[in-house]
Design goal:
The protein is of the alpha/beta class and 478 residues long. It has 14 helices and 21 strands. The chain has three domains: 51 residues, no CATH class; 207 residues, P-loop containing nucleotide triphosphate hydrolases (Rossmann fold); 173 residues, Ribosomal Protein S5, domain 2, CATH 3.30.230. The strands form five sheets. Strands 6-5-7-8-4-9-10-11-12 form a nine-stranded mixed sheet, with helices on both faces. Strands 13-14-16-15 form a four-stranded mixed sheet. A three-stranded antiparallel sheet has the order 2-1-3. β18 and β19 form a beta hairpin. α7 runs parallel beside α8 and α11 crosses α12.
Length: 478
Amino acid sequence: MYALLRFIAGENKFLERGFFMAKGKSVTVFYCQNCGYESAKWLGQCPGCREWNTFVEETVSKAGLKGNGGQSGRLTDRAEPCVLADVTIQKEDKLLTGIAELDRVLGGGIVQGSLTLVGGDPGIGKSTLLLQVCRQISQAGHRVLYISGEESQVQIKMRADRIGRFSENMLLLCETGLDAIAETIRQKKPEVVVIDSIQTMYSDTVSAAPGSVSQVREATAMLLQLAKGLLVSVFIVGHVTKEGTVAGPRVLEHMVDTVLYFEGDRHASYRILRGVKNRFGSTNEIGVFEMKEQGLTEVQNPSEYMLNGRPENASGSVVSCSMEGTRPLLIEIQALVCHSNFGIPRRQTTGTDFNRVNLLMAVLEKRSGIQLSGCDAYVNITGGMKIVEPAIDLGIVLALLSSFRNQALDSKLIAFGEVGLSGEVRAVSMAKQRVAEAEKLGFEVCILPYVCVGEDRKKGKIKLVGVKNLQDVIDYLF
């Protein structure tokens, strides 16, 4: 009995000395793909983020675990707290990329020492955009280092020849080892570094395949230290999963300063760059680009670009206005309503919330007496845009009514406003900017919430029609 107690008491010491593990061999660790939580065994639900079935198994060497623990151990220089009021802020000029749409999304330019993650579907144009950024910055006299782990120097040169001529400040490195990359950055001392892509980078201290959770986390942590320590602006290209999120642990997005996503159909000519996270500016701004043979070009007037090819005298088509940050964006909403041949009508949406459309149809049927319960309904936001702002509710309602009654609305008509469950049309933010954008593009009539009709806008060229509920809209148009 005494020997058994001694064995239990000394069990931890045996484990610490490695008696139950062969020296130098690898161990199995489970990581959560959503938050990066680490566990010694597989778990159905993550204790960190409470998500189900997110753990993946990876093999990590014992030496790698000790090395990571040493890096995250006790600090040699103890940090002392300071008085917040005594902290001084030095205003630093942001580095302009030469692409106005990208500068808008970044919050005015590139911040020194920032770490930016650029995600998007394969072939959407991530590498092309960053190569164009490198060209603009290098021509302005700044040293740029482009590191590729997916393509050879010849492949990058072929794409670069289509974009234009590059200066001598543009450096190219085809490497996947993090140690070699870090040494090159310290020697060359560039101002901007591009990593294409983070899933191809690997560290010798982690015995896992490139692209795994541990390798992606280790690579991002090392690049973060280089960016903050050397004051180098780093851009990271990240592949996305089938759900549309960046591959790897979700902690990757928490580590970086800015997260940008490329949206749009890869077979279409337009691209939308949206800021999801930005520590240096707004996260509501978007940049619109058009893919051409020479690369991505800026779209100066996205509203006019989105309305190109709009049908005339067609029922079910209405123009509405959505705000993307500080930029008003005019979009066309199309609806098709027809009687259903089945017991359960079919409803389908593209570019907007499915449940929101069902709610608006229920409000129409309850408050206005229009029978839509036996009709199929299809709603589409043209141009591939994804709009979830409630301000387009009134546009969706008018498109449904126009298609249901087979009555085309005026092509110079625009409508925006939030629709409540009681059928009221509620106010929306930045109504003046929306009206000004519609007036600039030649619209003559604007239907908007009554409370948004300001006295200073009643004398403008565009006619403002303020409505309080859906019945006012129906009485005015139908």
